[in-house]
Design a protein that fits this description.
Layout (H helix, E strand, L loop, with lengths): L1 E3 L2 E4 L3 H12 L4 E5 L42 H14 L4 E3 L3 E7 L2 E6 L2 E5 L1 E4 L21 E4 L14 E4 L3 H12 L5 E4 L12 H16 L18 H8 L5 E3 L3 E2 L3 E3 L5 E3 L2 E4 L24 E2 L2 E2 L2 E6 L17 H16 L1
Parallel strand pairs: 1-7, 2-3, 2-8, 3-4, 8-19, 9-16, 10-11, 10-16, 11-12
Antiparallel strand pairs: 5-6, 6-7, 13-14, 14-15, 17-18, 18-19
The structure holds flavin-adenine dinucleotide.
The site of flavin-adenine dinucleotide has 35 residues, from α1, β3 and α3.
């Protein structure tokens, strides 16, 4: 069975909801298709101790401020999930759940969205599928020979699984620092390895400053001025309280990356070896865009070429929330509102034409 609507939004996490909010304001008929059984996108699956790197009021989607979480300056993931659940209810966003989008095809004047619950035919598509479903693991010699446990950030549930174990945490970004700190606070004493020495942002810098830096960079680039370097120029790790306390207590010393994995551990650059029970790869993500394979859109590093949020080679398609390449700070709660508004306006104009 094929259903019809003006716009299909793929993904019902924060980016999909922000798109829905602006489409609704403009009176554009749409449906939001989301694979999960419940609201909250990726926030439903993070580890318990994860804290946002911004206070609540700086972690808000358009239209509604995130309420402050009692006793927490930096809210936890469960708070974000309840905020997103409330948000979609409050604005009566048309989310259909447990619908997996398999592919998007061109179909004359329409785009055909193939799902495991039937097809949709739409005049425009917004893709807001995030990155959580595409964990990235680097190619490291010996990775397949290692007989211990290997997991990615997306599978990390908390330190309880690692009590008494020798654990290596790989990655110098926020996930690596937060997971290493989480283990250290629980007495696991992980070995934290990073490709370059950890670059902490100043302790008083949080998501507010990151958002401003991303916006300043976008403005400079749009105006043809010199690249300010954006967020990356400030550092890699936001010193949220658990990270700061672990670092200040001397629990977060990082080592340079090992050269390879052996069957039972790691080998360091000087040839010495260490036995390891588990390796946690906090090595990032790629955009979840496999559903566009048949459109054959140009792009590098797993991306699709965009102007703003619009796909260069398919003007009926917008990409939202994947990173700065789809709008400054668009992969954050506070940053996704503006590109979502621009995408909705662009689509409304396209539908009027
Ligand atoms: P998601 O939350 O992943 O939502 C995408 C939705 O699309 C999911 O429900 C998914 O199931 C669904 N989907 C995917 N593919 C399909 C398909 N083919 N068909 C149907 N549905 C599909 N941001 C902040 O603002 N502050 C922070 O402090 C912060 N901390 C972070 C910490 C970590 C460890 C990580 C990984 C990210 C953090 N972020 C933070 C970044 C960002 O806000 C989150 O990653 C956020 O979840 C991204 O939202 P999204 O809507 O783009 O994607």
């Amino acid at each position: 069975m094929t259903q019809r609507t003006e716009v299909v939004v793929i993904g019902g996490g924060q980016a999909g909801l922000a798109a829905g909010y602006h489409l609704r304001r403009l009176g554009v008929e749409h449906v939001i298709l989301d694979a999960q059984a419940a609201p909250g996108g990726a926030w439903q699956h993070t580890w318990d101790s994860l804290r946002l790197f911004s206070p609540a009021e700086y972690s808000s989607l358009p239209g509604r401020l995130m309420p402050v979480q009692r006793g927490q300056t930096y809210p936890d993931a469960a708070h974000v999930v309840s905020y997103l659940a409330d948000y979609e209810k409050r604005y009566e966003l048309p989310v259909r759940r447990e619908v997996w989008v398999e592919a998007v095809h061109r179909d004359g004047a329409f785009l055909r969205v193939r799902t495991d619950c039937g097809d949709w035919r739409a005049r425009a598509v917004v893709s807001a599928t995030g990155t959580w479903t595409r964990p990235f693991l680097p190619t490291v010699p010996g990775r397949r020979q290692f007989t211990g446990r290997q997991l990615h950030t997306v599978q990390y549930a908390g330190p309880a699984d690692f009590t008494g174990q020798r654990v290596v945490v790989v990655g110098g970004g926020n996930s690596g620092a937060q997971i290493a700190a989480d283990l250290a606070h629980a007495g696991v004493d992980p070995t934290w390895v990073t490709r370059r020495p950890p670059r902490y942002l100043a302790d008083d810098v949080d998501g507010r400053v990151l958002f401003d830096a991303a916006t300043a960079r976008r403005r400079a680039l749009d105006a043809g001025r010199t690249d300010t370097g954006g967020v990356a120029s400030l550092g890699d790790i936001v010193a949220v309280p658990p990270v700061r306390t672990a670092r200040d207590a001397g629990l977060l010393g990082a080592r340079p990356m090992f050269t390879r994995l052996t069957a039972t551990g790691v080998e360091w650059a000087d040839g010495t070896r260490g036995e390891v029970d588990a390796v946690i790869w906090c090595t990032g993500f790629r955009p979840a865009l496999a559903h566009f394979a048949s459109l054959r859109l140009r792009g590098t590093r797993g991306r699709i070429a965009t102007e703003g949020t619009r796909a260069v080679d398919e003007p009926r398609l917008h990409l939202l929330g994947y990173g700065d390449w789809t709008g400054p700070a668009s992969a954050t709660l506070i940053g996704v509102g503006r590109p979502a508004r621009e995408a909705a306006r662009d689509i409304a104009a396209l539908l009027r034409a």
